[in-house]
C-alpha cells in the first residue's frame, strides 16, 4: 500500500528524469501553485496486490461498455473515470485499496477505449463532453446504480464534474483532479497568452488533417510522449506504459480523440441532441455535491490554478495539493492519496 505523510509545506523529493523536467519547463513554464489547505507528500510506496481480473461488459445507451469491477457487490458504489491518453489501469492500485475497505469499485473504459464498443456503426464517433457524460449515466442506469461516488482526472474529471453539476441526484460525492474542468465552445474562442497556447500544441495538431493522420498512425508513441510531458517526474517503466497502451487498441479510438479536441475549438458542431446540455454547461453551473479536489505538484499538462475554481464548488469542499513529484495521472502516481480522497468525500457526504 502506498503511504504518504501530511506536511505543512510542499517539498520536492523526486530528482528523476531531469532532462524531461527541463523540457517540460521550456514548453509549459512553471505552474503557479495555490497555498494548499495542507499538502500530502508521497514517501514510501509499497505495491498493492491489485489487478483487474476478467473484465465485464454491459450494454448501456449507445455502447457495449467494458469495465472492471472490484470489491463486494453490496458495497458502496464508486465509479472511477480515466482520461486521455490513459486507461482503466490508472486505478488498479486505487481499486485494491478501496475494495479492501468495502467499496464496490467500477472502472469503465470510456467510448473509444479498450473493450468498449459502439453498438451501431451509424453512431457518430463523437467525443464532445456531454456525450461522454451521458455514457456514464447510461452505465449507471444499466447497472441499476441510483447514486455513486464519482472520481476522475483529465477527461474523467470533466465527465464527473458534468454529472455532478447537471445530475446531482446521481452523485453522492465527487473527487476531481484539477478541479472544475467543464468548458464550452464559446469559452474556448478567446485566445490565450502565447505560453499557454503552446501548452495546447497537440490540440492544434489534431485540428489539422496531418494531425489526425499522424495520431492514427503513431498513437502508441504519441501518447507515450504525452505521458512524459504531463508527468515529467514520474519514472514509469515500459511495462506500466504498455499495460495502458492496450487501451488505445480500439477501432474508434483515434476518431473519438480527434473529435473531442476539434469540438472544443468549434471545428465540429457535435450532435444536435446534446445542444441543450451544452447550453447548460456553457453557463458554468456550480457543483453542489460534497467534493474533494486534488492537484499534483508536478502536473505538466495544462490545468487551472485551484484558486480559480474553488468558488465553483458550493457544497462541502476540500482541496489537497499532492506533493512528491506527482504529475497528471494522479491516481496511478499517488494511489493512496486518491483513495483517501474517495474515503474523505464519503465522510463529507454523511
From TrEMBL:
Protein name, entry field: Alpha/beta hydrolase
Organism of derivation: Pedobacter miscanthi
Cleavable signal peptide: none
Keyword Hydrolase: yes
Protein origin, superkingdom: Bacteria
Matching InterPro entries: AB_hydrolase_1 (IPR000073), AB_hydrolase_fold (IPR029058), AB_hydrolase_sf (IPR050266), Epox_hydrolase-like (IPR000639)
UniProt entry keywords in alphabetical sequence: Hydrolase
Coiled-coil ranges per UniProt: none
Annotated AB hydrolase-1 domain residues: 77-207
One MF annotation (Gene Ontology) recorded for this entry: hydrolase activity
Transmembrane segments: none
Amino acid at each position: 500500500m502506498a503511504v504518504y505523510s501530511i506536511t505543512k509545506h510542499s517539498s520536492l523529493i523526486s530528482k528523476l528524469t531531469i532532462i524531461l523536467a527541463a523540457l517540460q519547463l521550456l514548453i509549459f513554464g512553471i505552474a503557479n501553485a495555490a497555498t494548499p489547505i495542507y499538502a500530502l507528500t508521497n514517501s514510501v510506496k509499497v505495491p498493492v496486490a491489485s489487478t483487474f481480473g476478467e473484465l465485464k461488459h454491459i450494454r448501456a445507451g449507445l455502447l457495449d461498455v467494458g469495465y472492471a469491477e472490484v470489491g463486494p457487490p453490496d458495497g458502496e458504489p464508486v465509479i472511477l473515470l480515466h482520461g486521455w491518453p490513459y486507461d482503466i489501469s490508472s486505478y488498479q492500485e486505487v481499486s485494491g485499496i478501496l475494495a479492501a475497505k468495502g467499496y464496490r469499485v467500477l472502472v469503465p473504459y470510456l467510448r473509444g477505449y479498450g473493450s468498449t464498443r459502439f453498438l451501431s456503426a451509424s453512431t457518430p464517433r463523437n467525443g464532445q463532453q456531454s456525450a461522454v457524460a451521458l455514457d456514464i449515466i447510461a452505465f449507471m442506469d444499466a447497472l441499476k446504480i441510483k447514486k455513486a461516488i464519482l472520481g476522475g482526472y483529465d477527461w474523467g474529471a470533466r465527465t464527473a464534474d458534468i454529472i455532478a453539476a447537471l445530475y446531482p441526484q446521481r452523485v453522492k460525492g465527487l473527487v476531481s483532479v484539477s478541479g472544475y474542468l467543464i468548458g464550452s465552445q464559446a469559452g474556448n474562442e478567446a485566445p490565450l497568452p502565447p505560453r499557454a497556447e503552446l501548452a495546447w500544441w497537440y490540440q492544434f495538431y489534431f485540428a489539422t488533417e496531418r494531425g489526425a493522420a499522424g495520431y492514427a498512425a503513431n498513437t502508441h508513441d504519441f501518447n507515450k510522449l504525452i505521458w512524459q510531458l504531463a508527468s515529467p517526474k514520474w519514472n514509469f517503466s515500459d511495462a506500466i506504459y504498455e499495460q495502458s497502451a492496450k487501451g488505445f487498441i480500439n477501432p474508434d479510438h483515434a476518431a473519438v480523440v480527434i473529435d473531442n479536441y476539434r469540438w472544443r475549438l468549434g471545428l465540429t458542431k457535435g450532435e444536435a441532441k446534446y445542444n441543450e446540455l451544452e447550453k447548460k454547461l456553457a453557463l458554468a453551473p456550480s457543483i453542489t455535491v460534497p467534493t474533494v479536489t486534488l492537484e499534483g505538484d508536478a502536473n505538466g499538462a495544462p490545468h487551472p490554478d485551484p484558486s480559480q475554481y474553488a468558488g465553483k464548488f458550493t457544497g462541502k469542499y476540500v482541496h489537497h495539493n499532492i506533493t512528491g513529484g506527482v504529475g497528471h495521472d494522479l491516481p496511478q502516481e499517488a494511489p493512496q492519496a486518491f483513495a483517501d480522497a474517495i474515503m474523505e468525500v464519503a465522510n463529507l457526504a454523511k
